[in-house]
Description:
Elements: H1 6-26, H2 30-36, H3 41-49, H4 56-66
Helix pairs in contact: 2-3
Amino acid sequence: MINRPASEEIVLVSIKHNVARLLQVRGLTERDLGARVGMEREEFHRWLDDPPKRKETVVKKIATELLVPDFYLFAEGEGLLPAASIADFRLSTPARKGN
């Protein structure tokens, strides 16, 4: 087990939880999002698990693909994240995805 400072654990939990929630809202999988940001699913999963190796450019790419400001990925609590799916207006026929 890796000993991490408590603040690092909070960030780790927040980003993993928030990305998982946004994937659900957007109707995407880790594989889909990984491919959109140029990573294999396993590489993307490792990236979520290892905060010291996170690069700002990857965070920005993920936020862009999930249609949220990058700080949403680090938000604590449920208040900032949508409770239901959101129509993807980048599509020629916008449609809700996810739940």
